Amino acid sequence: MDSPWKQPVNLGPAINTGALESIPALSRDGHWLFFNSDRPGGFGMVDVWASYRFDKHDDFGWQPPINLGPGVNSAFLDQGASFFENDDGGSPLLFFGSDRPGGSGLLDIYVSERMADGSFGNAKLIPELNTSRNDQRAVARFDGLELFFFSDRTGVGKTTCSCRRARRWMTPGLSR
Q: In 18-91, where does DSSP find H-type helix?
């Protein structure tokens, strides 16, 4: 905590290309990097991609990224992913935002389950979290019982919200 941050370093050509790469998020174990990109090979405007590194201490050991496929990505904007690994033995979940048709608003929060083969299942809208405005960049608490996200929903302005669940999502409230 007392040592200063070092200068940022480019992660190299596997991650950084001439395309847009943004909103990085690491898996809890430090092996997976999820990010947005409009690089060639995508399904739409901006897609969610992931890269794996075998040694979590090797900042330059990232493998060529993979597009997370049509279960996650659409012909529209798909971005702001966070990966939740369940301690209770449930399947890992990928939360992300999208402006695809069929949502509640401008940007909506979706979830996709990682399947046994490592691919991601079809994205599901989480209606309890979304409004007619922008709701995005959801991140789950370590136990999965609280989700934090950004929203510009009516009545709260641009703010971070949270919602808790026992077994089912509850109505989101402002984080304090």
A: none
pTM: 0.87
Q: Two tokens at 107?
A: 């940007």
Mean pLDDT for back-to-back runs of 10 residues, the chain (176 residues): 86 93 94 96 96 94 96 96 85 94 93 93 92 90 85 76 57 43
Quick one: tokens of 167?
């077994």
Edge-to-edge strand order for the sheet containing 159-164? Answer: 135-140, 146-151, 159-164, 173-174
The dihedrals phi and psi of 42, each to the nearest 5 degrees, come to: -90, 180
Phi, psi of 22 (to 5 degrees): -150, 175
**Per the structure block, which two tokens stand in for 145?**
């019982």
Residue-wise over 7-43: b if at least 16 C-beta within 10 A, else e?
Answer: eeeebeeebeeeeebebebebeeeebbbbbbbbeebb
- Give residue 176's pLDDT: 38
Residues, the chain: 176
Q: What is the DSSP string of 96-153?
A: EEE--TTSSSSBEEEEEEBPTTS-B---EE-GGG--SSBEEEEEE-TTSSEEEEEE--
Q: What integer pLDDT is reported at residue 165 of this predicted model?
A: 63
* CA separation for the pair 108, 99 (Å, rounded): 6
